[in-house]
Write a structure and sequence with these properties.
The protein has two domains: 281 residues, EreA-like (biosynthetic domain) (EreA/ChaN-like  fold); 114 residues. The chain is an alpha/beta fold. Strands 1, 2, 3, 4, 5, 6, 7, 8 and 11 form a nine-stranded mixed sheet that branches. A two-stranded antiparallel ribbon has the order 9-10. A hairpin with an 8-residue loop joins strand 6 and strand 7. The longest helix has 22 residues. The protein contains 17 helices and eleven strands.
Length: 445
């Protein structure tokens, strides 16, 4: 990877200047207990977007959980929206809100997360957070219970299956429409990648079927009231089916098309949840740094890509948006070497020379909290610096070839938490379900 620094100055001079500024502005934060300055900084913001530099790092989950708990108890946040599938996460939502027949424990409910990469949500770190959320909600009235929702678009087959099961019991006419949509996807085993490949060879799509399904559900939305959120959830599953069909159809063309469909779906879902909760609802989002950091501060923009951080900031800046990124210098991670492979623990090598992680480490080995607005008047930080991003597929030996995103860090995030040494996540499942492999942008975020 080329040096990110100006050719008019020596690398050593610029590194020393950046390191001195990091030392001057950073706050030592050795544990999640040292979060008072962050909570004060968040203030009355309506959106807090919590990133992660990988989907398999223990500390990213535990620190985000600690921040989330304080936002809920001290700032009155209404729900958590995550980079996860709607059907699985809605099952969790029913559990934490104490709905009937919602499961006996977080461990039981999280075992339903069978789609690869299972470790993203089916892990012991999430068990702890979900049980805390259930206990927090139990004494509260229904309207004050904190929700847990999936923002992602992958669950094509699962969402249609949920709709079929529900409509079969409640609405025979809508059930027939749902059957037509299901029949269209059935030859592909409800798998998006098979649908993508076949629709390129045969000019037939299931677009009309999922659009009709959405219309039918919206026309009958008032009838779906078996729990306080069933109507919303049924409509959301239809929206997932509609947008997933579009996502998979565009994916084969490459470029930014499928990425943008996915992130726009996440933001649309977030906005729908805000409207549903009403009365100034406040949202916490958990997603990879590549989603929550502002795309305009990276090279994503020149590739025609938008992301959650950019769109939420543009749409809601007047309501207060705080984007918080995470990163670490070295450690271990849970990831795969190939799509649908058996998960494994991998070593994360030291951040490469000149990278954001390298500079933070050179500024001191302690964990750090940085409020990045202090860096925005420093011209040296306007130069893109490589910032590590680890996907669900990871090859540590190839890090320099594609794991660093050139970033103007103070404009990508508002806050950054640096953890010098991190550990691997603790999964519940030992092996993934190889039949449920989502297709993502090539980086696997």
């Amino acid at each position: 990877m080329k040096s990110p620094f100006s050719k008019n100055q020596s690398t050593d001079e610029i590194e020393k200047h950046i390191i001195s500024k990091i030392k001057a502005y950073s706050i030592s934060s050795e544990t999640p207990l040292s979060l008072d300055p962050l909570i004060e900084k968040i203030g009355d913001a309506q959106f807090v977007l919590l990133g992660e530099a990988s989907h398999g790092t223990h500390e990213y989950y535990t620190w985000r959980a600690a921040i989330t708990k304080r936002l809920i108890t001290e700032k009155g946040f209404s729900f958590i929206g995550v980079e996860g599938d709607w059907p699985d996460c809605y099952r969790l939502n029913r559990y934490v809100k104490g709905y009937p027949k919602a499961g006996e424990s977080a461990h039981e409910v999280l075992h339903y997360f069978r789609r690869w990469p299972t470790w993203m949500w089916a892990n012991w770190e999430m068990v702890a957070l979900v049980e805390w959320l259930k206990q927090h909600n139990d004494p509260l009235p229904r309207e004050n219970k904190v929700g847990f929702y999936g923002l992602d678009v992958y669950s094509l087959g699962e969402s249609i299956e949920v709709i079929l099961k529900y409509l079969k019991k409640t609405n025979a006419e809508a059930f027939l429409t749902a059957q037509k949509a299901a029949a269209c996807f059935e030859p592909y085993g409800y798998e998006g990648i098979d649908y993508t490949r076949d629709s390129q060879m045969v000019p037939k799509s299931c677009e009309n079927e999922v659009v009709d399904l959405l219309k039918e559900i919206r026309n009958n939305i008032s009838r779906y009231n078996t729990d306080p959120e069933t109507g919303f959830s049924t409509e959301q599953n239809a929206l997932v089916a509609k947008n997933a069909e579009k996502y998979y159809r565009k994916m084969i063309k490459g470029g930014p098309f499928s990425w943008n469909i996915r992130d726009r779906h996440m933001v649309d879902t977030l906005n729908r949840l805000l409207d549903f909760h009403e009365n100034g609802a406040k949202a916490i989002v958990w997603a990879h740094n590549t989603h929550i950091g502002d795309a305009r501060a990276t090279d994503m923009t020149k590739h025609g890509m938008v992301n959650v951080g950019e769109m939420v900031t543009s749409q809601h800046e007047n309501k207060g948006v705080v984007k918080l990124g995470f990163g670490s210098y070295k450690g271990a991670v849970i990831a795969d070497r190939n799509w649908g492979d058996v998960m494994r623990k991998m070593n994360v090598p030291q951040g490469i020379e000149g990278s954001w992680e390298y500079l933070l480490h050179k500024a001191g080995k302690e964990n750090k909290l940085l409020f990045l607005d202090q860096f925005r008047n420093e011209p040296v930080f306007d130069t893109p610096i490589g910032h590590r991003a680890i996907g669900v597929v990871y090859h540590p030996e190839r890090e320099q070839l594609g794991n660093y995103v050139p970033s103007v860090i103070p404009r990508r995030y508002d806050v950054f938490i640096y953890l010098d040494h991190t550990q691997a996540l603790n999964p519940l499942h030992i092996k993934p379900d190889g039949h449920q492999v989502p297709e993502t942008f090539p980086w696997g975020f």
